[in-house]
From TrEMBL:
InterPro entries: Aminotrans_3, Aminotrans_3_PPA_site. Belongs to the class-III pyridoxal-phosphate-dependent aminotransferase family. Its cofactor is pyridoxal 5'-phosphate. It comes from Sedimentimonas flavescens. The lineage of its organism: Bacteria, Pseudomonadati, Pseudomonadota, Alphaproteobacteria, Rhodobacterales. This is Aspartate aminotransferase family protein. It comes from the Bacteria. CDD domains: OAT_like. Keywords: Aminotransferase, Pyridoxal phosphate, Transferase.
Length: 451
C-alpha cells in the first residue's frame, strides 16, 4: 500500500505539479488543491485530513457492493499468483474468462448469451460500433453504418464512445462525432417537455427515432444506442411511453438495439439490468462499472445469439484489447457477482432499500428550490428550480446553483454530483437505512445553505 505519509498540502502540491485529472478544470483545481482520499469502507470515504465522507455516488456509480470487501482482494491476489495474465487472442482462453462469460450469459436477459470482454465502458462502446458495422457487413448490407444515439447521452470518452455520446461540450473539443453517428433529442420532460404531458412527450421523443431513420434512409441505419436511464446526463428517467415506442421502431426497421448498461447494470435499478426494469429487449448490452464493483477495471459487450452467430460466421473480427478478459479482472468480477447474488444485495435493494430511499428522496420536493425528484432503484436526481410551477431554469449560467450545492455537500462531507442544475445520487447498493437517513440530513442541509 502507498502510505499517506506526507502532509495534505504537500500531496496537493505534488498532485498539482504532475497529475492531470479527467473532467476537471486544471487551473481551478490547482488553486484549491484536490481532496485526497486515503481509504474507504462500506459507504464511507476517509480523506487525508481524517474527514469521514458519505459517498452518495458509489465512486463513479460503480461501487455496488461497497468499499472494503476482503473477498475481492483475496481472489485478486490468488489469481495473480496463479495466472496474472494471459490473453484471449489467437485461439487461447483461460478459466476465469470462461467462467465469467458463462455467468454473464446466465444473468443476462433473453438470448444475450455471448460476451466480448473489454477494459472499460468506453472501449466496450467502441467494440459495439465496430461489431455492429461488421455484423451488417457479414450480412451483406455494408451500407448500414449509421448509429443513432441521443443528445445528452453519455457513452464514454474514447473518440468512438464520445461520438456516440451526446455531450455537446465534448463534441466541441475535438472534431466529434466521427462519421455516421447521428443524434436525436433526449426524453427529458422536466426541462424540454413544454406544454406536453409526460406521456405525450415520451411518445414524441421516441418518434424522433423514426423520423431520423427515415431522414438517414432505413437501409443505412445499423443500430440505436441508449442508456435505459441516462446517468451522467442527469439521471433522466424517460416517461413510460418512451421505451415501448423505441422498441417498436427498432423492430419495424430491423435495426440493432444497444442498451448501455454501464451504470444501470448489476442492481442499480433494482434488477440485474436496467433493461429488465424498463422492459427493453436489446441485441447488445454494454456493461462495466458494477461488473467488478469498480475494484478493478473491466467492461464487456454482451450480445445475442443472432449477433454472435453472424460475427462468428464472418471473416475474423479484427478487434480486441490486450486486456480483453483479463484473468484477475474476471476473477474479481466473478467474486463480485457471487456477493451480489449470495448476499441478496439486489433482492434487498428491490424489496427494502430502494423503496426506503425513494420515499426519502421524493420528500425533498417540499424544499423551495427542488422541482422534479426522480428515482429508480438506487439512482436519483432532483432538478433545482426558482419556480416549480413553470419548471423554470435559473437565470444565472446553467450549472451555477448546482455547483454551489455540490460545494455545500462537499463541505458537509457528502459526495453528491451535479449535472447542470440537477443534483444526483447513486450510493452503494449496500447502504443501510441509517446511512440513508444521514445522507438525507446532509443533502437537505446543503440545499438549505445553497438556497
Ligand atoms: N457508458 C455509460 C452509460 C457511462 O455512464 C460511462 C461512464 O460513466 C461509460 C459508458 C464509460 O465508461 P468508462 O468510464 O468505464 O469508460
Amino acid at each position: 500500500m502507498i502510505e499517506n505519509h506526507l502532509p495534505t498540502a504537500e500531496l496537493q502540491a505534488l498532485d498539482a505539479a504532475h497529475h492531470m485529472h479527467p473532467f476537471t478544470d486544471g487551473d481551478a483545481l490547482n488553486k484549491k488543491g484536490a481532496r485526497i482520499i486515503t481509504r474507504a469502507k462500506g459507504v464511507w470515504l476517509t480523506d487525508s485530513e481524517g474527514n469521514e465522507i458519505l459517498d452518495g455516488m458509489a465512486g463513479l456509480w460503480c461501487m455496488n457492493i461497497g468499499y472494503g470487501r476482503e473477498e475481492l482482494a483475496e481472489v485478486a491476489a490468488r489469481q495473480m499468483r496463479q495466472l496474472p495474465f494471459y490473453n484471449t487472442f489467437f485461439q487461447t482462453s483461460h478459466i476465469p474468462a470462461i467462467a465469467l462469460a458463462k455467468k454473464l450469459a446466465e444473468l443476462a436477459p433473453g438470448n444475450l448469451n455471448h460476451v466480448f470482454f473489454n477494459g472499460s465502458g468506453s472501449d466496450s462502446n467502441d467494440t459495439n460500433i465496430r461489431m455492429v458495422r461488421h455484423y451488417w457487413n457479414v450480412k451483406e448490407q455494408p451500407e448500414r453504418t449509421v448509429i443513432i444515439s441521443r443528445w445528452n447521452g453519455y457513452h464514454g470518452s474514447t473518440i468512438g464512445a464520445a461520438s456516440l455520446g451526446g455531450m455537446k461540450g465534448m463534441h466541441k473539443q475535438g472534431g466529434l462525432p466521427i462519421p455516421d453517428i447521428v443524434h436525436i433529442d433526449q426524453p427529458d420532460w422536466w426541462s424540454e417537455g413544454g406544454d406536453m404531458t409526460p406521456e405525450e412527450f415520451g411518445l414524441a421523443r421516441a418518434q424522433e427515432l423514426e423520423a431520423k431513420i427515415l431522414e438517414v434512409g432505413p437501409e443505412k441505419v445499423a443500430a440505436f444506442i441508449g442508456e435505459p436511464i441516462q446517468g451522467a446526463g442527469g439521471v433522466i428517467v424517460a416517461p413510460e411511453t418512451y421505451w415501448p415506442e423505441i422498441q417498436r421502431i427498432v423492430k419495424k426497421y430491423g435495426i440493432l438495439l444497444i442498451a448501455d448498461e454501464v451504470i444501470c447494470g448489476f442492481g442499480r435499478t433494482g434488477n440485474w439490468f436496467g433493461c429488465q426494469t424498463l422492459g427493453i429487449e436489446p441485441d447488445i448490452m454494454t456493461v462495466a462499472k458494477g461488473l467488478t464493483s469498480g475494484y478493478i477495471p473491466m467492461g464487456a459487450s454482451i450480445v445475442s445469439d443472432e449477433v454472435a452467430k453472424v460475427i462468428n460466421a464472418g471473416d475474423e473480427f479484427a478487434h480486441g484489447y490486450t486486456y480483453s478478459g483479463h484473468p484477475v479482472a474476471a476473477a474479481v468480477a466473478l467474486e463480485n457477482l457471487r456477493i451480489l447474488e449470495e448476499d441478496g444485495v439486489i433482492d434487498r435493494v428491490r424489496s427494502e432499500i430502494a423503496p426506503y430511499l425513494k420515499a426519502k428522496w421524493e420528500s425533498l420536493s417540499d424544499h423551495p428550490m427542488v422541482g422534479e425528484a426522480k428515482i429508480v432503484g438506487m439512482m436519483g436526481s432532483i432538478a433545482l428550480t426558482p419556480n416549480k410551477a413553470k419548471r423554470a431554469a435559473f437565470a444565472a449560467k446553467s450549472g451555477t446553483i448546482g455547483l454551489i450545492t455540490r460545494e455545500r455537500c462537499f463541505a458537509n462531507n457528502l459526495v453528491m454530483r451535479h449535472v447542470g442544475d440537477r443534483m444526483i445520487i447513486s450510493p452503494p447498493l449496500t447502504i443501510t437505512k441509517a446511512e440513508i437517513d444521514e445522507l438525507m440530513v446532509r443533502a437537505r442541509k446543503s440545499l438549505d445553505e445553497a438556497y
